[in-house]
Amino acid sequence: MPVLALVSAVFVLTSEQLVQWKYGATGIVALLLLTLGIKAKSPSVSSAGAVLLALLVAGPAL
After folding, report:
1. Which of 27, 36, 37, 47 could form a disulfide with 19 if both were Cys (CB 3.0 to 4.6 A apart)?
2. Is pLDDT above 70 for 62?
3. Is-contact 29 36, C-beta < 8 A?
4. How far is 21 from 4, CA to CA, in rounded Å?
């Protein structure tokens, strides 16, 4: 079981670093909102994070 926790932690840290590298601080805030909203079971917070991430990803196409 500790191996699964280690792999999960490495995956989360890697994904956070990739988001920060590509989308900057706004991407980290959006990912944080999405994660906190899911963990707190708050649809409004998770929706705000998802919309912000979608705007960051689709920004160059708009």
Report:
1. 27
2. no
3. no
4. 26
